[in-house]
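Researcher: Good morning. I'm working through a list of sequences from a screen, and I'd like to move beyond sequence-only analysis. For each chain I'm collecting a predicted structure so we can compare shapes side by side. This is the next one on the list. No need for commentary yet; just the structure.
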Amino acid sequence: MRAGLGSEAATGRGGDPVAWHDAENGGFTADLPLFERLAAERDGRIADLGAGTGRVSLQLAAAGHAVTAVDFEQTLLEALRRRAADRGLEVGTACADVRSLRVDERFSLVLAPMQLLHILGGATGRRRMLASVRRHLEPGGRLCAVVVAEPLPVGSGRPEPVPDVREADGWTHSSLPVEVTIAPGTLTMVRLRQLVAPDGTLTESRHEVHLDRFSLAELDRDSDAAGLWIVGCDRLPSTLEYEDSVAIMMEARDG
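Model: Good morning. Structure tokens for this chain:
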């Protein structure tokens, strides 16, 4: 769920990290209506964790909400800031690891979209992230984290979506999901990345994303240890690439 300026990065052998991020993440919209509803229900500042180039942050800022976008990739935040400026929007940014977030702000709502909790290094990373969020929540503030619903069947298969494509300064970035493997502790998504240079030269590479698997009971224990209550959940609409996703709502406990 991650990844500089476009023209400079795009001329490299690996392509433009911003274009890859947009291709592989920017087209997902199934969670936006939920986030917009949650934002409308709460006063105060909103934090978008793993914000990337602003898929969620820009949408909420355009609706009039005060948003801080958090990501550990500076190149993605630079792209987000340019896009916000182009649209006349104000979006705060923080380049940080969400497991050790320290900003001088408190939030009424924190969003953790697109399986962020699954790429934090297991239970230890999840607990660090949840504790970090708890420190930054206002009294009664909430965290909404999107997770993969369990149980999942062990096995592998080939998804059938069309490629996700983005162009940057004449370089075409095409990313095609080709395999999903579900193992006892992990879920691996494999993409075929194809980069076409302005002269037509094609290069290919495999890109793998490994997601930690955990049950709702495990997440409940993690959140409890961090001082958060699970107070509800919403199932997101299924898409070709993001089936069985659930948004878990957690609220800061008193004390």
